[in-house]
C-alpha cells in the first residue's frame, strides 16, 4: 500500500483545519474569554468530568533547535479526571492563535472568523478540583501535527481524561502556526522556514523525541513541576501523535523506555523505528483512507517500519478519513459548513472511531482491559479496515 508524506499533502490541500537546570513556571498563556460561538466539540464518552491545567516548561540545558539563542520552551495542556461542577469552562484557543491558524488553512477562514473559532465550546474546566482516587492514573502524551497547535487534539484529550487518564498535550516552541507563550508572545513556525526548503522534517520528530523525556522528568520525577503530578502513575505511560506527532511517538519510545505503548495517527515515519525495534512494546498505526491519497506523494515508510515493530501491533485504515480526520478539524468544519472532500467521512464519525480505537488501545496496554474491537473487523465499525495485524 502507498502512503504519502501526509503532513505535506495536508498542507497542500489547505484542509488541515517540559530536569536539572530547567526552569518551570505555572500556566499563563494569554487567555481568551469563553463566549458563545455555536461551535462545540463532542463530549467525552467516559464517566469522569475533565479538568484542564496549563504548564510552561523551560529546559535551560538545551537550546531551541529553531532559534539557537533561546532556551527550549514547551507549553502543555494537562487534562485530568476532575470533580463535576468545579472550575470554569476552558477556552479552546486565544483569538491570536485562531487567527494564525486560519491564515495557514486555505479557504477555511472564509467560513469562520478567528473570534468564533477561539470561542469553540470545550468540555474541560480550568481550576477544576482533581477527582479523589485510591489509585493514580496512567499518563498519555499527545503530540500534534507539524504547524498544528496542541488544541487540535482537544477532543481526543478530553475523551481520554474522561476515561481515567492524565493527558499531556504538548506545544513545542516555533513548531505551530502560532502559539501564545507566557508574556503574550505569539511564537510562529520558525521550524517551517528551515525544514520545508530541504525536506528535513526528521528534525522535528527527532527534536520532539528529545523534548518528551524532559516532559516526563518534570511530570513524574522527584522535582515534579505540575501541582497535580501526584495524580500520575509513572509506571504506565503512553504516547500518541497525529502526523509528525505520530513519528515522534515511536521516536520517543526508541529513546525512553518509560513510554510503554504508542500510536501513530496518519504520520510518515520521518524518524525511522530502530532496526532493533522498540523492546517488544505495543504500537498502533491508524491511517486515513489510502484511496484519498494524491498519487504524486509516495511514501513507503509504513511498509519499511512495520517489520521493525517487534511487539503487539496493528495497522488499521479508516475508509473516508483524510489526513486531518483524527483531529478536531472535521468536526468544526462540518459545523461551519466547510466542504472537505479530502476527508469525506463526517467529523462526528471520524472522532467516534479515533476516540474508540485509541482509547481501547491504551486501556488494553496500560490497564490490561480487554479490547475486542482491536482483535479484528467488526460490523459496528465498517469503515475500519485491518490492513495488517
UniProtKB/TrEMBL annotation:
<protein>
    <submittedName>
        <fullName>Alpha/beta hydrolase</fullName>
    </submittedName>
</protein>
<dbReference type="GO" id="GO:0016787">
    <property type="term" value="F:hydrolase activity"/>
</dbReference>
<dbReference type="InterPro" id="IPR029058">
    <property type="entry name" value="AB_hydrolase_fold"/>
</dbReference>
<dbReference type="Pfam" id="PF03403">
    <property type="entry name" value="PAF-AH_p_II"/>
</dbReference>
<keyword id="KW-0442">Lipid degradation</keyword>
<keyword id="KW-0443">Lipid metabolism</keyword>
<feature type="signal peptide">
    <location>
        <begin position="1"/>
        <end position="29"/>
    </location>
</feature>
<keyword id="KW-0378">Hydrolase</keyword>
<keyword id="KW-0732">Signal</keyword>
Amino acid at each position: 500500500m502507498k502512503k504519502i508524506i501526509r503532513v505535506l499533502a495536508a498542507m497542500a490541500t489547505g484542509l488541515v483545519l517540559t530536569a536539572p537546570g530547567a526552569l518551570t513556571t505555572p500556566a499563563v498563556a494569554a487567555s481568551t474569554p469563553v463566549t458563545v460561538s455555536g461551535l462545540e466539540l463532542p463530549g467525552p464518552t467516559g464517566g469522569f468530568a475533565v479538568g484542564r491545567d496549563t504548564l510552561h516548561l523551560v529546559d535551560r540545558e538545551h537550546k531551541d533547535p529553531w532559534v539557537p539563542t533561546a532556551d527550549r520552551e514547551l507549553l502543555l495542556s494537562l487534562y485530568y479526571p476532575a470533580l463535576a461542577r468545579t472550575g470554569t469552562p476552558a477556552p479552546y484557543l486565544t483569538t491570536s492563535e485562531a487567527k494564525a491558524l486560519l491564515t495557514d488553512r486555505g479557504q477555511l477562514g472564509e467560513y469562520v472568523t478567528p473570534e468564533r473559532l477561539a470561542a469553540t465550546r470545550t468540555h474541560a474546566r480550568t481550576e477544576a478540583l482533581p477527582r479523589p482516587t485510591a489509585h493514580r492514573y496512567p499518563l498519555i502524551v499527545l503530540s500534534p501535527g507539524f504547524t498544528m497547535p496542541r488544541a487540535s487534539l482537544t477532543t481526543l484529550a478530553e475523551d481520554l481524561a474522561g476515561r481515567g487518564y492524565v493527558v499531556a498535550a504538548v506545544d513545542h516552541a516555533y513548531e505551530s502556526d502560532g502559539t501564545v507563550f507566557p508574556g503574550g508572545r505569539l511564537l510562529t513556525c520558525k521550524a517551517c522556514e528551515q525544514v520545508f526548503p530541504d525536506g528535513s522534517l526528521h528534525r522535528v520528530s527527532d527534536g520532539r523525541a528529545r523534548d518528551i523525556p524532559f516532559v516526563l522528568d518534570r511530570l513524574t520525577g522527584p522535582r515534579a513541576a505540575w501541582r497535580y503530578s501526584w495524580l500520575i502513575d509513572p509506571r504506565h505511560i503512553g504516547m500518541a501523535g497525529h502526523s509528525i506527532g505520530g513519528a515522534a511517538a515511536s521516536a520517543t519510545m526508541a529513546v525512553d523506555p518509560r513510554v510503554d505503548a504508542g500510536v501513530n495517527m496518519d504520520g510518515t515515519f520521518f524518524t525511522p523505528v530502530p532496526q532493533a525495534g522498540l523492546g517488544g512494546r505495543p504500537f498502533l498505526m491508524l491511517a486515513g483512507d489510502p484511496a484519498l491519497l494524491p498519487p504524486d506523494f509516495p511514501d513507503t515508510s509504513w511498509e519499511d517500519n512495520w517489520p521493525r515493530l517487534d511487539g503487539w501491533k496493528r495497522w488499521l485504515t479508516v475508509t473516508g478519513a483524510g489526513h486531518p480526520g483524527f483531529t478536531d478539524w472535521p468536526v468544526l468544519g462540518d459545523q461551519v459548513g466547510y466542504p472537505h472532500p479530502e476527508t469525506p467521512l463526517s467529523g462526528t464519525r471520524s472522532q467516534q472511531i479515533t476516540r474508540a480505537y485509541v482509547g481501547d488501545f491504551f486501556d488494553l496496554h496500560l490497564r490490561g482491559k480487554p479490547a475486542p474491537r482491536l482483535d479484528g473487523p467488526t460490523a459496528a465499525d465498517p469503515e475500519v479496515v485491518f490492513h495488517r495485524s
